[in-house]
Amino acid sequence: xxxxxxxxxxxxxVGFVLLLxxxxxxxxxxxxxxxxxxxxxxxxxFRRLHRPTGSPKTLYALTPGAREVLDHGALWGGERPIVYxxxxxxxxxxxxxxxxxxxxxxxxxxxxxxTFGFGVAQExxxxxxxxxALQAALPDRRVEVINAGVGGYSIYNEAGWMEEYGFxxxxxxxxxxxxxxxVDDPYFxxxxxxxxxxxxxxxxxxxxxxxxxxxxxxxxxxxxxLTAVLLGLLRGEGGxxxxxxxxxxxxxxxxASPQWAWLRERYGELAERLDRAGIPFGVLLxxxxxxxxxxxxxxxxxxxxxxxxxxxGIPVLDLRSAFRGGESSEFFLDVTHLSEAGHARSAxxxxxxxxxxxxxxxxxxxxx
Length: 368
Hints:
Layout (H helix, E strand, L loop, with lengths): L2 H31 L3 H11 L2 E3 L7 E3 L4 E5 L1 H4 L4 E7 L3 E2 L12 E7 L1 H4 L9 H12 L5 E7 L5 H12 L6 E7 L6 H5 L31 H13 L5 H13 L5 H20 L3 E6 L13 H12 L4 E3 L9 H4 L8 H17 L12
Parallel strand pairs: 6-7, 6-8, 8-9, 9-10
Antiparallel strand pairs: 1-2, 3-4, 4-5
Helix pairs in contact: 5-13, 6-10
């Protein structure tokens, strides 16, 4: 046998052994790292709360009439069953009266899973707590706060939801809950919320095309994902989901980033539509768990965001102050989502802020 045939045979053997080793590693990682049966059941139930809309403006939304009892203990340990009930036109809570009752002060809250109240009961969400606080402060007026938060939404979907559903609810005030991960790769968020594949995303839904990670064959394998996490750790970036948050925070700390250009355009469009409709509009800035005292990591985005909204004439509330005097473990269920105590603190801060500013006209009876 010639030397080059022996070399080729050796290379084929090495390649076969390497391929077999990679296959065995993937199978082992699949067995070790795949979600548990309880976790898979949880996410299947959570996805059943949502539906593709077929609209490029919203992409997906909550399904009116959907109801699921999901045990968050599958994610966080213990037992934590939460009832999620969706009312028309796709909101958490009770359906609003149509038409709006005369004299009713109606506040519409747009947002993502933090506003939706992922992990807490409907009565514990900050929109519901806000309604209670404002009703106590304005006893002579019926106050109604509509929770239009949808998990995974960014300002792109929120503006689309406002156009397709929100204006028909005739709100007197609109609030938007902003979270640091709103400028993440949208494929990561959207893939958690529907059983069906949404397909290609509109360009306007993507904060930074260079950071986009569309689903692929490789994205479903554990070995490439673990390799990416390990490389990120070697670079000091962290890994997994927290890495996405870090990317978002870094982007929001740089006003020249593509994410900032996207953010200005999307918020500018929503502000213009609301201004034409004569609806007051405010933004709530929610921190991540490690952005509150005593950690207080990465405070830069709050100053930049607050300055931007004020320059645009949009009232803004930095909610870090709502969590002073406590630990992140008291106010957060994970790095993003608020606990019952976190929702309660947020609602009190928002109510006080609104009474001092956004509701100064409506308190005198000027409602739509």
